[in-house]
Specification:
Layout (H helix, E strand, L loop, with lengths): L14 E3 L8 E5 L1 H11 L3 H4 L3 E5 L2 E5 L12 E4 L7 E4 L2 E3 L3 H12 L5 E4 L4 E4 L4 E2 L2 H12 L2
Parallel strand pairs: 6-8
Antiparallel strand pairs: 1-7, 2-4, 2-5, 3-4, 3-10, 5-6, 8-9
Helix pairs in contact: 1-4
């Protein structure tokens, strides 16, 4: 499972509502939201689960799949691809105050990880999702148990 990366605290663009939302390609949760997202994912039918791939690290979960199949829980961030920054998965409803291509260049250089990178502005996480694997009920359940352990 991939570990999230923290972006440079000196480079933090301001995010504002996007005029036209991006189509969702992924959903992400951090902290308690990640745990709720995992529980929700474990509750779906096997056929739906088989349509997703995902990555997870300590306290973060990103699921990739078809827009209509992605689960919802309160607090998740839906991510999509802006044509101006194809190496990033950006929040569907938020746009940075810098050109997406410049943001992409800065974050990809900073991350030194595989792309695409899921950008989670509220928690200041970058998550490499290029190594996403098919979601396994057993693996997801084990990740959840490890996150919930004291």
């Amino acid at each position: 499972m991939a570990s999230p990366l923290s972006p440079d605290p000196h480079f933090s663009p301001v995010w504002s509502p996007r005029a036209q939302p991006l189509p969702a390609l992924a959903v992400a949760g951090v902290g308690p939201v990640a745990l709720a997202l995992a529980r929700r994912a474990l509750a779906v039918e096997d056929g739906v689960l088989a349509r997703w791939s995902g990555v997870a690290g300590p306290g973060v979960l990103v699921l990739l799949g078809d827009t209509e199949s992605l689960p919802w829980v309160d607090g998740v961030v839906y991510l999509g691809r802006d044509a101006a920054a194809p190496s990033l998965l950006l929040p569907c409803t938020l746009a940075p105050d810098v050109a997406p291509s410049l943001l992409e260049r800065a974050l990809v250089t900073r991350a030194r990880a595989g792309t695409p990178l899921a950008v989670l502005p509220r928690s200041a996480h970058l998550v490499p999702v290029g190594a996403a694997r098919p979601v396994s009920r057993v693996t997801l359940g084990a990740w959840l148990a490890k996150q919930e352990a004291p």
